[in-house]
Amino acid sequence: GPARRGGSLRRRTPVPPPMDAVNPNSAADWHRLDPDAAVARLASDAAAGLAPAEATRRLAAEGPNALPEGRRRSLAAMLLGQFSDFMILVLLAAALVSGIVGEPADTIAILVIVVLNGAIGAVQEYRAQRAMLALRQLTAPEATVLRGGERRRVPAAELVPGDVVALEAGDLVPADLRLVEAVELGTDESILTGESHPVGKTVETLDEPGLHLGDRRNLCFKGTTVTRGRASGVVVATGIRTEIGRIAGLLATGEGVQTPLQKRLTRFGRYLAFAVLAICGIVFVAGLLQGQPSALMFLTAVSLAVAAIPEALPAVITVSLALGARKLSRRNSLVRNLPAVETLGSVTTICSDKTGTLTENRMTLEALVVGGERHDGFPEAEAGPVWQGLGHALALSNDVVSQDGRPVGDPTEVALFEFAARAGHDKDRLEQAHPRIAELPFDSERQRMTTVHRDGGKLVAFTKGAPEAVLPLCRDADAEAALAQAEALASEGYRVLALAERRLDALPEALETVERELAFLGLVGLIDPPRHEAPRAVAECRAAGITPVMITGDHPGTALAIAARLGITDDPGALVTGPELAELSDDALARRVGDLRVYARMDAEQKIRIVKALQARGEFVAMTGDGVNDAPALERAGIGIAMGRKGTDVAREAADLVLLDDDFATIVAAVREGRRIYDNILKFIKDTMSSNSGEIWTLFLAPFLGLPVPLLPIHILWINLVTDGLPGLAFTAEPEEPGTMERPPRPPGESIFAHGMWQHILWVGLFVAGFSIASQAWAWSRGATYWQTVVFTTLTVSQLFHSLSVRSSRASLWRIGLASNRPMLVALGLALALQLAVIYHPALQPIFHTQALPAADLAVCLGLSSLVLVAVEIEKALTRRGRLYGEPAGT
């Protein structure tokens, strides 16, 4: 990268732009000012810095160089804030009703469930505060600064605009700086830009307005790391006005996004509450018109309300999500936000960062051009002096050192070193035979470096650098043809270097003359390659109806090349750059966003804008990332997925899910688990609402048919407890449906009652009510005193058969197998045993107002109840044939 050597390199001094064209509160425009003009603009002195008194005055005026904490809420306040959700209010009403009818156990159970859900929400809010705290900690504790002509170490929080700061390799940049001097300076800006390779820095003025963050090479940014060289710079922005401060502002103002399940359950709870109130009112009035005691009918209506509201639903959801999170943890996925487990199943678009997520985040040498021909590696046999010279150049012409058996140095040079070692050119061994005696370090203007080594009694010089800087110095190269090959490699996303050598008898007095009459060795192409499992994962996402999108701060050529190799897209028309996106209005972006698959040179705000545009189209968006620049988008997306190994603390704290192995393919496994969990939640809702529908229709229709009220309040509450609680929890263990990853994701706005669910709830309720009332009429007409026990048993057992039948929405019970969900068999067996105990145990009969049934009558109850299993299997068979609910035929 570009650099200024020793502070003595000649610097151009273009006419600076008008001062009113430069925003003093942002680092965005300072690159357009000459260093002297920038220092003057800040009323400072590059040689002496600010006077201590002036620094104190500015600190009082500007405030500390720290990110603001913002208003913190206590855990108690966070917990109380969770009880405004409509479904939660409905559950609290159910708890009150349970207390009225004398069922304190139900009241306690509901309150425990409500508090548990509130705690989950409070933890989510606490997690957001942790993200801001992690961002605040990403700062240098101290800085070396010039004050009154003296170098001193001060807390980084005390830096002010105009301070002159010194930087060395290994330092964390303490504020946004305009460089005034740089010697071989390189910084790692991946946390802000997502680019995988260090950025070379310069002091040269950059006249172009609106440069992308990664292209402002005369600026250093707070929170980034100095990888090599040394420099000094004048502070142009501190605290919230820095680039990382701007990201902190985006995090602080980020809008939360409800998950599809939360939206559906909110609507579900609202509609259910109104429906239950209406039905209970009708049942109460109908009973009074029949001459039933008002107290009994009031308790019946209230009990029916308690039974109709599936208060076990939050518990089932919580257990499902917790078990799913545990399962995902065994697959290298750490769930930080419990609803994220289900949310994955609803994702329609995955916006993925490139570096470290889809790629390996390390430069790799993949292509060689020697003698005009392209190769993937060295020939197995010795192929002549050119190949030997190239291998020696790759190994020797770099500054990589081994530490604890690992190569350490510039990522590009590490890639050259590792490739040479794999080809048998070991640097340590070669250096013993060819020690380095002189060097011309890399320079931004020369764009090349040269090292000189002993070669027996003579010398050999190796030069590497940009092709346009090296090829004109070669005596035997077809420069035009070689440059065309270099451009071809660059179009494939490679970073291209040219290598050459020169044999010498002795070291010339003017070392710069070594770089003349070079012998061209070849071109090498380097790239941060895709992770080997990423293309398969992308293909699986597409097969599941999920659109993968790449968003990166990298160059467009590199981004498109990687996208093509991953199978995302190879269409240049599906790519847009940050500057191009900045020119698009929100409406124009909304029209194009559905066709775009690659976004290059993007900053943090633009990533949020992309996510919002997709969400406006009705997409449910997952965002993956690892850098600080990804954190606001991770928070804004429907689900944020951070990298666990290479990700920053800020990204992890803002995310809902952390991939412990940084493997994009792990997302596919998580999506599969999310879909299974959502399917099982729907199965429970279908089961419990169909069962409740049967109770409601039975109580509603029996009086109109001239029959007495079929159930007592204690019967309703018992049915609710036995048939919802145990089987409901067993649904959480249901394995995934066949073809789970071969169907498109459910649209985020789709109702819970879609795909025939409301029709199922209606007809099953009427069907169960029909044979339950028939059993009541049969027993009552015979004068059997136990007629109420008959209808009570028929309703209870029919709901257990229904639970067994809806374990799959399409596949038959015989195909999925009775034993594929053993917890369900245990739950149904236990529920049946409890029902029989209530009927036959003398101590329980007075409590539940039951009588022992003759064996024949019990057999009739069981036979009638089993009809629901047969009926639902017929419904599934018709659905598979495409004859019901508009569903396509299939398994």
Describe the overall structure.
With 891 residues, this protein is α+β, with helices and mostly antiparallel strands. It is 47% helix and 15% strand. The protein contains 32 helices and 24 strands. The chain has an 8-stranded mixed β-sheet, with helices on both faces. Strands 1, 2, 3, 4, 5, 6 and 7 form a 7-stranded antiparallel β-sheet that branches. It has a 7-stranded antiparallel β-sheet with strand order 11-10-18-17-16-15-14. Helix 5 runs antiparallel to helix 7 (243-252), helix 10 (312-329) packs parallel to helix 26 and helix 28 packs parallel to helix 32. Mean pLDDT is 82; it is low at 1-27.
**Roughly how many Å is the radius of gyration?**
36 Å
Q: How many β-strand runs?
A: 24
For the report, how would you describe the main beta sheet? Answer: 8 strands, mixed
> What share of the residues does DSSP label as strand, in percent?
15-25%
Instruction: Give the termini distance in whole angstroms.
Output: 59 Å
* Distinct helical segment count: 32
Multimeric status of the protein: single chain
